[in-house]
Fold:
Amino acid sequence: MNILGISAYYHDSAACLLKNGEIIAAAQEERFTRKKHDSNFPTHAINYCLKEAQIVASEIDNVVFYEKPFVKFERLLETYLAFAPRGFLSFIKAMPLWVKYKLFQKSLIIKELQNTLSPKVNWKDRLLFSEHHLSHAASAFYPSPFKRAAVLTLDGVGEWTTTSLAVGKDRDLKVIKEIHFPHSLGLLYSAFTYYTGFKVNSGEYKVMGLAPYGKPKYTKLIKEKLITIASDGSFKMDMSYFNFATGLTMTNNKFNKLFGGPPRLPETKLTQRDMDLAASIQKVTEDIILRIAKNIARETGERNLCLAGGVALNCVANGILLREKIFENIWIQPAAGDAGGALGAALTVWHMNQNGERNLKKNPDSMKGSYLGPEFSDSEIKNQLKSCGAVFKKFKKDDLIDSVVSALVKKKAVGWMQGRMEFGPRALGARSIIADPRHSEMQRQLNLKVKYRESFRPFAPSVLSEHVSEWFELDENSPYMLIVAGVKKQKLRKMTTREENLFGIEKLNIKRSSIPAITHVDYSARIQTVHKNLNPFFHALISGFKEKTGCPLIINTSFNIRGEPIVCSPKDAFKCFMGTNLDLLAIGTYLLFKEDQHEYLKENYRDKYTLD
Structure:
């Protein structure tokens, strides 16, 4: 049985295909269209999924959408009535879009399926709808290695739900508790994202990365004025400080007065206040998640916890949750945001509608390392590179690894594109930029010269799983880079008194450990454990680096620049390679050296990236 899951029309559209319950393919639409967070119908992602599954449109048994649009419209109407007349401006702004597209979304989806796949198939009879948070919960529980577990989902808002607790047993999954809009931990975090000058729905991880530079001095004020938190972790927000339910911004003048001024304008200089606000909302988020988790453990008696929803991408909170040992085991969906809803929607149909069995996989789960996107053959790579005018050389795999390791040791930045593309927001060694973590200047160099992004943004280490506990305060697997843990004390460098007393961004360029490029200012790192069975080539590369340096880890950041999606194709990779200061590009068995490329191409791609 073939089930196609889709998410669309908000942000991060995606498609996923299951064959008899097995995840065959999954990808975000942005990777194909090159439009970051593309919310359009996932035409390209759907076509890819069918190609990967080697099926035609008529062989799709069910198409399932990840939420119920009419229930979402009901929320819009009820919110307007509840806040009338304050919500009138946002209401009249939203209505044309709803009337034109979203209110009749079933018809729109059927039309898109006819245009994308086939007009001859009766899609009306094959189309189903899941619920937003049920899709999240299904994406967390069903691929997990647990026979039974509690499931916590946290995000901005689905139809009505913003937080849900479910319990999964075998193929059964039941939601037992919910918190409803407008009370939302995700939207509270997004309000501070907006207020500190970052983009809502994409800049939240920047706030998390900024938090260690500040002090949580506003935590008490947030808890006293903005949100009331019960002992079980449930919460209510004082909506008089927020504008997202009634207006066109996240916060209002009352919020501004509380924190001493208007929101930071995007791209302006970060102040100590911005850093302290980031630290404060991060601390509040951690406190709420811990309270909820403790209550879940008491109420359900479950020993395993699964997480999904956009808030589950807060890897700092995940690390704290893990260290508190409230549950014996924790598993987090790597595509925890709305893209993962496509996967969860398909899984709900397979397990709950079709009574399909779960085939539990313990090593480590059913996500296949989240390597679920397109892969390109050597001939496809060669043809695409030729069409770009690239100069490249073919290598045997062992020789390619030797060349890349040698480049890393020489402080070179390398684009690494191998195998199937990752599903979800993290680069996991298939579409990555890699470098040597032992050099203190590497973080700043990569941020400013390659990624073209804020200098404070941290980089993650990819470490051989068999060596993780020697370098980090972590004894668990973290294959999806969703857990933050401390660097081992014996790897740290003793700070001088002057260095200890530095504030804010002044802390950035201080060497803190023997692996300074991935050691954050609070001595932590966002860790990916690399497993030989999940990604043997990436594992072999890091093993080669260890043999040469004694260090079993490398820097791993996503293969893209600021404002663009992670690369998908060889053409995308070549464009990013040429438009940045990357020194080397490894695609399949081909290597490209920057100095070998034609000068006119270097100038052409740099100009294009400047215009972008």
